[in-house]
Amino acid sequence: ARAAVCYPPDGLHMLILGATGVGKTMLAREIWRYAAEERKKEMPFVTLNCAEYADNPQLLLSQLFGHEKGAFTGAMERKTGLIDQADGGILFLDEIHRLGATGQEILFSVMDHGEFRRLGGIQMHKVRLLLLCATTEDPDSALLSTFKRRIPVVIQLPLLRERPIRERFSLVSLF
């Protein structure tokens, strides 16, 4: 993770795998802290649990990318998305397997070229961010192969019972 954060210019996107409760979110926060320390600047850390919007994929896309006025029923004004908010920092997408194929494909332009389009918009917007994704699911069955290819660093977190006793004790002390 440290090497991936330091990779020029903005780091390498990462996928964090592991069962519920193994510390995927905690690791993402530590990666952000390390990145801010290494770059010697404040940087945003924006999180979204994709499971919160799994039943409404359009709302999930609106949360991520924002939308233009009139993009859909109820879109009364232009809204910036979480990608805008994460510009210059890290966007952490938890439960990424709940982001459907369309959402994963729309993220391609962010990952490949650092640009995106708000829902209902025609103008491309530039953004520089590091994408951290986490899932409890098997990435081979839950994510598009074209999405996985764009994430060069995969970190598998072991179950707590598989970690050395010293590490478990440190975690108990921490919490």
Describe the structure.
The protein is α/β, with parallel strands linked by helices. It contains eight helices and nine strands. It has helices spanning 2-6, 24-39, 57-65, 82-85, 101-113, 139-142, 145-148, 165-174; strands at 14-17, 45-49, 66-67, 79-80, 90-94, 115-117, 124-126, 130-135, 153-156. The strands form three sheets. It has a five-stranded parallel β-sheet. A two-stranded antiparallel sheet has the order 3-4. The longest helix is centred in the first third of the chain and has 16 residues, at 24-39. The radius of gyration is 17 Å and the shape is globular. The mean pLDDT is 93.
SSE diagram, text form:
Elements: H1 2-6, E1 14-17, H2 24-39, E2 45-49, H3 57-65, E3 66-67, E4 79-80, H4 82-85, E5 90-94, H5 101-113, E6 115-117, E7 124-126, E8 130-135, H6 139-142, H7 145-148, E9 153-156, H8 165-174
Q: What's the quick description here?
A:
This protein has 175 residues and is of the alpha/beta class. The chain is 37% helix and 19% strand. It has a five-stranded parallel β-sheet. A two-stranded antiparallel ribbon has the order 3-4.
Shape: globular
Per DSSP, the total helix count is 8
Instruction: Give the DSSP E fraction (strand runs of 2 or more residues).
Output: 15-25%
How does the major sheet shape up?
A: 5 strands, parallel
Order of helices and strands: HEHEHEEHEHEEEHHEH
How many β-strand stretches? Answer: 9
Q: From the helix content, strand content and strand pairing, which structural class follows?
A: alpha/beta
Strand ordering within the main sheet = 2-5-8-1-9
Rounded to an integer in angstroms, the radius of gyration calculated over CA atoms is 17 Å
Which regions have little confidence, pLDDT < 50, spanning 5+ residues?
none
Q: End-to-end span in angstroms?
A: 23 Å
- Give average pLDDT, whole number: 93
Helix content bin = 25-40%
